[in-house]
Design goal:
Blueprint lengths: L2 H42 L2 H6 L4 H8 L16
Helix pairs in contact: 1-3
């Protein structure tokens, strides 16, 4: 194995790690924007619409007040 092969593999590994990190960060930002948007929409629903989906105003406001990064109830929270 030549030194060129070793250097190429090192750069390839760094590129793979960087790509994975950028992908992870991008997915997190998408998830956070989704959480913020849907929580805002939930807070704006009228009481009769909340009742239709089985939520009280208090439950909706508790959910809407959660920070955008708190996504424990989202199905894709374990993004890797």
């Amino acid at each position: 194995m030549s030194s060129v092969d070793i250097i190429w593999r090192s750069n390839s590994s760094r590129h793979a790690v960087l790509t994975a990190l950028v992908t992870y960060a991008f997915r997190k930002v998408i998830m956070w924007r989704h959480a913020a948007r849907t929580r805002k929409q939930l807070a704006e629903l009228p009481d009769n619409a909340l009742a239709d989906i089985g939520l009280s105003r208090d439950m909706a406001m508790r959910e809407a007040e959660r920070p955008f990064w708190d996504s424990r109830t989202m199905p894709w929270k374990n993004i890797r």
